[in-house]
Prior knowledge:
- By secondary structure, the chain is an alpha+beta fold.
- Helices cover 13% and strands 32% of the residues.
Amino acid sequence: MTELPSGVRHVANYLTPADQAALVDDIRAVVAEAPLYTPAMPRTGKPLSVRMTNCGALGWVTDRDGGYRYQPTHPATGRPWPSIPPLLTAIWNALSGYPHPPEACLVNFYAPGARMGLHQDRDEDEFAAPVLSISLGDACLFRVGGTQRGGRTVSIRLESGDLVVLGGAGRLCYHGVDRIYPGTSDLLRQPGRINLTLRRVTRPKP
Ligand code: SIN
Ligand code: FE2
């Protein structure tokens, strides 16, 4: 067993194959309404290798001129994001330990060869809520460290149906995806991995 940083929880095998298939159907419907787009780094405009879309009242986006941010509309279509599917809200209610609903679900699609560098999720105003991450499709090598850049990291393999919760002391831990293992799941019609992250963005009024 790999010792994870405090506040980082890996729930292996949380979703049944039937739930995974139902979620993939939900995400296909989201992508039909809000197509995957290629995000770009702030300032340099360098494209990310992961393609993205969102569902929820707010979606996380990034491009050269606007940088990292949440916004209520899709950057290419200008339309509001589709709503968060009930199955995702149910997973949030079961695992987040947070009494308010998620506002954003970032959908990441990793083709074989895509990766995501170490980063913190810190564009939200509310850090009392965890970030809840769901893996579907091909397995990946996920890396997580502490809350300071450059610290020690540990790597774990995430399989389809696994969850990761970054909460409490782990909410601002650095994390990233070093590689995808193509051909390790037959859930999707094409090789690759879908990652869903549920987030609370705004602070509820007291
Ligand atoms: C993310 O940090 O947005 C994605 C993490 C993952 O793909 O597991
Ligand atoms: Fe992240």
